Hints:
This protein is of the alpha/beta class. It contains 10 helices and 10 strands.
Amino acid sequence: MKAVIAIFKSNKSQDSPRTAASGAAQGDNIITIRGLRKVYKLGRERVVALDNIDLDIKRGEICCILGTSGSGKSTLLNMMAGLEPPTRGSVVIDGVEITKTPERKLAKFRQEVLGFVFQSYNLLNTLTALENVALPLTFKGVPRKKREKLAKKMLADVGLKKHMRHKPSQMSGGQQQRVGIARAFVAHPKVVFADEPTGNLDSKTTIEIMELMTSIARKYGLTLVIVTHDSEIAAYADRIIRLLDGRIISDELNPNPKRVAGGDTSAAADASETEKENNVGGKDFPNETVPVTT
């Protein structure tokens, strides 16, 4: 879990990351990628993971990067999040060229601008749902009362009002991912990266999580970048970018992205949690811990 903490933690005395261009110069694009290339050396062999990627992502856009295993989609996400340096090329997010930002300043940038949703949830097992969601706010120096208030509101938004004091071991996989979503959005980041966010969930819970995550992004006008191999997940995005062998092979707008029926995210989340509480036998959660209810 040290990697999770490292994403949020930073030295408050650090200077802000360098600015590559002003917001006006960037226009409506919050992410700009130019000539991005990543080559891995495996012994005497060279594996090209990304091959000269050019990509713009607009503010408030829900974008899906779709590809099979080995297509380069996860590598691209790592480059965009500043988690791995490219062989060459540039990534600019919100006017900051992160590919030229020193490592010691990247944590501060992630803390202020980015949010993350992980396939494996990456919750701290010793903390409650409330404490996990408040973690990014803790590292930002938000006073305790205020961060608890914000974390409680976000947990209520994802339908976990009755599970705030529960630890991960007391929650189902779907509930843990709801906590992960609340943690990603609680500080209102400008961009949220979701790496195979439903990879460990059953089909029913997958639909609930995708409706919840995309609805929150639309509600707050945030940019959401989803990486997946599943075309059903891609159907929730405004735009679908397909990768193959490290190259973009198609980039299309989705005229009819899937949305929550009725558009009420909190109501849908509450209804879903009520159904799960009534199903105490755990049949909706194969190979998962039965939810503990209060």
